[in-house]
Amino acid sequence: MSQVYEWEPGTPYGAGTVVVYQGVTYTIIQPHTSEPGWEPPNTPALWGRMEEPVGGYQQQQQGGYNPGYIQPQSQPQYQSPPPPQGGYGGDEKAWDQHQDQQVEIHHEERKKNWYDLDDHRKKQLEIGGGLVAGLAAIGAGYYAYHEHNKNEDEKKALVWGLQNWLQEAEARKRDFYERGPSGPATWILSEGGQVPQNALPAGQQNGETLYVCRGFYEGGLQIGKVSPAFPKGAVVGYGFKEVSLPKYEVLVGDPRALRWIDARGRLNVQSLGAQPVEGGREKDGTPLFVARVQHGEHVIPGKVSEKLDAALVPVGNTEVTQPEYRVLCYA
Fold first, then answer.
1. pTM summary value
2. Please, what is the Cα angle at 69 between 65 and 72, to 5 degrees?
3. Is the pLDDT of residue 186 over 90?
4. Is 125 helix (H, G, I), strand (E, B) or coil?
5. pLDDT recorded at residue 135
6. What is the mean pLDDT of the segment spanning 245-261?
7. Phi, psi (deg, nearest 5) at residue 269
């Protein structure tokens, strides 16, 4: 059997590597340099779980990436599962096992929903590695897309949406630091609890200043809170749960050009008398605007829309609805 190493962060892992993490053996799928949070059980796009039966043979667990045996004294090899009926247009790899992007994706195309692409273009993106950036983000533990209640097309749609948001967010960040702000409110990509300079303070919780953030989750761009005190990064609300996201955008703004306006109940944009700051969108495309609420002794930023009867903010491991809130608007 090939030499087995204990998994460690900050380590380059190449083809053929086998590691042990918490007593479980994994074989590499995609060469990479490990990072904290990229532990093998959290990164199914990078590692395939194995088990070692009696006699020195190695076999991946049922449901893993390689259902076959790996002979002893040989390099561990990854075998793709059989392609669906009809194949992949001559490529035997499944859509989530392509490691190199060989297909060009145009800027305007990234604005489209996965379901709006025709079947021929979807197939080009699948076999040409057009979903590789989203897979890398998911493989890094962004969230578990291998959920039992999602079919393959739903998974592809989430990967497509996630990577397109990341591409746009990286472009916004690059443009901001090269050219400066393009207006009174700009979203800057951050991660790991980091908050950029000139982030707009929007509340406080347990003595810590809270800032407005947004991140991609379940097909939408959700608005929430971030603070350097949060160990896992940003926190957004979804489905009446708090969700931690390691990558997110933070609102950087000029407080002289922005103001908070009181509102109540279902948001009526026309009645505000000012343009609200649009910060995100639901999965169906409904715009989400930046809001904040008084929750006990805390002030928590969150979201509101013209389809919600109150503002929603993440706090206490849930989403709290508050019919009285303030909306961030351009002055």
1. 0.67
2. 125
3. yes
4. helix
5. 60
6. 93
7. -60, -40
